[in-house]
Amino acid sequence: MDTIYVLDGSAFLYRSYYALPSLKTENGLETGAFYGFIRAVFSILKTKKPEYFAIAFDLPAPTVRDKIYKEYKATRKETPNELVSQIPLVKQAINLLGIRLLEKEGLEADDIIAYIAYKSKEWNKNLTIYTPDKDLMQLVEDKRIIVINPITNKVFDEEAVIEKFGVPPSKLADYLALIGDSVDNIKGIKGVGPKKAVELLEKYGSIENILNHWEEIQKTFKEASKEDLELAYKLIKLNTEEILNMINIHLEDLKISYNIDLQKVEEFFMAFNMKSLIKDLNTIFKEKSSGKRIQKTLF
């Protein structure tokens, strides 16, 4: 069975900025995260030689979660200007490389990837998701849908998710809702950590059943808020049904075009002193590239 490869562009670019050393052009433009991002993309292209490959991004516009909860991600630090300035460069490179760029106002990259995970079964394809974000591990399905952390190269199939969290992927959203997520400003149940979350799910099976036994829960966790838990689950659980009404992607939309304008890409990289990328560029694309192509808009 063929495999679709999808990179969580926003999460990876953000982590790259903090994980990789600073690089600057002669004009003082910060390019470290941009360079590291393209290096990672080239690594995927060289090792996997994908027929289907796309990169999903968040947009700065409010999402469906912001409408539900105004304080969603409110505690996150503002994205540094040095990183913001690199985002257009990354997106321009993606387009020049013939890779599908996926973004949609109102949705996060996670939502778009969840849509592809849902459709992959209909398309009869496996799916490999590259992301450092634990939330996307709820999509893992046996060995048909796996997650690879592009920072550590750790592979997460169902067995690896259970080993890390103590619950299967199908219960990961329940688990994360119970413990909360301070990064996204999502409250869980006060006093519930990873170990206790696993115990609660072993006993009750799901968030729905925990909510149905709330009086029992409150005897142990007196400060627990039913509304906070319901909200946490709604924010963390990737709701495919809602997403299906907002986007429409076809399998052919995810095909990478190896028929790109190599000279134009080389000139683009050289404008940012990235000569070291040219060798990989030619290795990956030269045999299949000739002429120019126009990147399609999906939405």
What does this structure look like?
This protein is α/β, with parallel strands linked by helices and 299 residues long. It has two domains: 3-158 and 240-285, Rossmann fold (3-Layer(aba) Sandwich); 165-236, DNA polymerase, domain 1 (Orthogonal Bundle), CATH 1.10.150.20. 45% of the residues lie in helices and 8% in strands. It has 15 helices and six strands. It has helices at 9-19, 32-48, 64-68, 81-84, 87-96, 109-122, 158-165, 172-179, 194-204, 207-212, 214-220, 226-236, 240-244, 262-270, 276-285; strands at 3-8, 52-56, 100-102, 126-130, 145-148, 155-156. It has a six-stranded mixed beta sheet with strand order 3-2-1-4-5-6, sandwiched between helices. Strand 5 and strand 6 form a beta hairpin. Helix 2 packs parallel to helix 15, helix 8 (172-179) crosses helix 12 and helix 14 packs antiparallel against helix 15. The longest helix is centred in the N-terminal third of the chain and has 17 residues, at 32-48. The protein is globular.
